[in-house]
Specification:
single chain; alpha+beta; PH-domain like; four-stranded antiparallel beta sheet; three-stranded antiparallel beta sheet; 7 strands; elongated
Length: about 180
């Protein structure tokens, strides 16, 4: 408990007066292949192979600096997209989890990220109306809507890949009951 109170000191100016840290942790940073889809991976691999072939052929083409340098680089976005769809998403998600921290207080849930020197701290109030949804090692407690070209889609927000989801869910339920 002394560890939590020592860490709580670093929350000065962020926590409300009287707000107490109940739990802090990180998601499991290991690769999670459960969302990997072979059909998408095959499509991504084909795009990556095509882009690699394009780059190799364009690099060997004669015709000045544009053909030798710039034209192969035009295939770079396709290579990146192909690799991402082939399995890079799994690697990227693990990288994001490695740089993510969760905090639960008696009033809010916090998600902090530190990616490429860009720090972000998002706070979500825990009220009696907060819908808690547990799916395996994931606990969802908020929803955001992301704008897409065709409208919007729902994006669930929560603590994912938790090593001890039962304990955290029990704490969140207790916070929710206390908020009534």
């Amino acid at each position: 408990m002394a560890e939590l109170s020592r860490r709580a000191d670093s929350w000065d100016g962020i926590l409300y007066p009287g707000e107490a840290v109940l739990w802090q942790g990180q998601p499991d940073p290991r690769l999670d292949w459960s969302a990997w889809r072979p059909s998408e991976a095959i499509f991504g691999a084909l795009i990556a192979v095509f882009a690699g072939f394009w780059m190799a052929m364009a690099a060997g083409a004669h015709g000045g600096p544009f053909m030798g340098i710039a034209f192969p680089l035009l295939a770079l976005p396709f290579l990146v997209i192909g690799l991402y769809r082939a399995g890079g998403r799994v690697v990227w998600d693990a990288h994001v989890r490695k740089h993510t921290w969760y905090t639960l207080t008696d009033q809010r849930a916090f998600i902090a990220t530190d990616l490429f020197r860009r720090r972000d701290l998002a706070a979500y109030p825990m009220t009696s109306k907060t819908v808690l949804d547990r799916e395996g090692p994931h606990i969802w407690f908020a929803t955001d809507f992301l704008r897409t070209r065709t409208g919007s889609r729902r994006h669930r927000i929560g603590f994912t890949h938790l090593p001890e989801p039962d304990r955290v869910f029990a704490l969140m339920a207790r916070v929710q009951r206390a908020a009534t």
